[in-house]
């Protein structure tokens, strides 16, 4: 019982604090040592939360080989050489029964195969830099996966395969990849969608969101939103962020009855006049952000809004919204 309590207590300490504790007596040294040489201590092998930043390759590999019950594994931008990659694959297989949250800022395609074939109990997955996928990665069913973040551009076929295998996703953040209507239809439980791209030729029809009945938050930065020509009701959406759109007059077709936060900007050359924003139907909005000095006319024109704004913020240093804009009908 004493051993169990000591090991469990060490889970709530930072690694440096555990190392200091282990130096206090022989018993604690045998249970809590953070030394990577030789047989790992019980506290190290049972460590549940491992967040590794800048660690030499050999130490990182030894650490990964030592883990037996990790629940959260986070690796920063480490050098993924053959030795480290082998240790990572070993850790993924050895901890597949316990691993719930995985964040890798560097990963090879063979490590991807281990993740999607062995770590089927994951709840959240974040993948950063990934080398060119030279093999076809097969994905097992990930029924427990709720949060997915991909910061690397991956083949559309692989993303579709991953979405089909993850029926319970509620949060998605993609950088550099696109999601079409067919992909969004695979996500009936999605509540948060963030799409980030630097490809300005990408168009995203806002109508696509109509297939997501539980969507609460939408953020789309880096490309153009195509506004609907017919009325579009997004009844569950509470937070909306966008930085470019095709025709401002079509905002009149967008109805956001549940939205409390709107951040609508429009990036263009300084010589291009700011387009008018008219009649955004968002009666419950209390927080509004824009990027131009037109804030006063924006809010004055939005006569459908019924509740008083709590905050008006401008994303441009040259924009100073007037206090009078807080009043609306």
Description:
This protein is α/β, with parallel strands linked by helices and 329 residues long. The chain has a domain at 1-46. Helix content is 25%, strand content 20%. It has ten helices and 16 strands. The strands form three sheets. It has a twelve-stranded parallel β-sheet with strand order 1-2-3-4-5-6-7-9-12-14-15-16, with helices on one face. Helix 9 links the parallel strand 6 and strand 7. Helix 5 runs parallel beside helix 6 (82-94).
Largest sheet: 12 strands, parallel
Low-pLDDT runs of 5+ residues are: 268-272, 293-305, 320-329
Q: How many beta strands in the DSSP annotation?
A: 16
Structural class: alpha/beta
What is the helix/strand order?
HHHHEHEHEHEEHEHEEEEEEEEEHE
Which strand order do you get reading across the main beta sheet? 1-2-3-4-5-6-7-9-12-14-15-16
Morphology = elongated
What's the tally of helices?
Answer: 10
- Strand composition percent: 15-25%
Draw up the topology in text:
Blueprint: H1 2-10, H2 15-22, H3 26-32, H4 42-45, E1 49-52, H5 57-66, E2 72-75, H6 82-94, E3 101-107, H7 109-118, E4 124-130, E5 147-150, H8 156-164, E6 171-175, H9 181-184, E7 192-196, E8 203-205, E9 217-221, E10 224-226, E11 232-233, E12 239-242, E13 254-255, E14 261-264, E15 287-290, H10 295-301, E16 311-314
Parallel strand pairs: 1-2, 2-3, 3-4, 4-5, 5-6, 6-7, 7-9, 8-10, 9-12, 11-13, 12-14, 14-15, 15-16
């Amino acid at each position: 019982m004493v051993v169990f309590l000591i090991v469990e207590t060490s889970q709530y300490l930072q690694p440096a604090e555990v190392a200091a504790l282990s130096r206090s007596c022989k018993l604690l040294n045998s249970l809590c040592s953070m030394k990577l040489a030789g047989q790992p201590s019980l506290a190290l092998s049972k460590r549940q939360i491992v967040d590794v930043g800048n660690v030499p390759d050999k130490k990182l590999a030894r650490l990964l080989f030592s883990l037996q019950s990790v629940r959260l594994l986070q690796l920063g931008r480490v050098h993924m050489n053959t030795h480290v990659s082998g240790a990572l694959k070993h850790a993924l297989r050895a901890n597949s029964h316990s691993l719930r949250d995985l964040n890798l800022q560097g990963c090879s395609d063979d490590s991807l195969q281990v993740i999607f074939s062995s770590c089927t109990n994951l709840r959240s997955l974040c993948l950063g830099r990934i080398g060119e996928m030279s093999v076809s990665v097969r994905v097992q069913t990930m029924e427990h996966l709720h949060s997915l973040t991909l910061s690397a551009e991956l083949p559309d076929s692989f993303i579709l395969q991953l979405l089909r295998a993850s029926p319970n996703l509620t949060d998605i953040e993609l950088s550099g990849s696109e999601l079409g209507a067919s992909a969004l239809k695979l996500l009936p439980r999605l509540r948060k969608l963030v799409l980030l791209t630097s490809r300005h030729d990408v168009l995203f029809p806002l109508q696509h969101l109509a297939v997501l009945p539980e969507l609460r938050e939408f953020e789309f930065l880096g490309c153009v939103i195509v506004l609907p020509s017919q009325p579009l009701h997004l009844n569950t959406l509470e937070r909306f962020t966008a930085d470019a759109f095709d025709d401002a007059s079509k905002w009149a077709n967008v109805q956001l009855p549940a939205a409390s936060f709107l951040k609508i900007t429009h990036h263009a050359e300084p010589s291009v006049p700011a387009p008018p924003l008219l009649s955004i139907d968002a009666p419950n909005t209390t927080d509004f952000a824009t990027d131009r000095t037109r804030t006063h006319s924006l809010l004055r024109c939005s006569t459908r809004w019924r509740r008083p704004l709590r905050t008006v913020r401008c994303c441009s240093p040259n924009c100073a919204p007037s206090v009078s804009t807080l009043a609306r009908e």
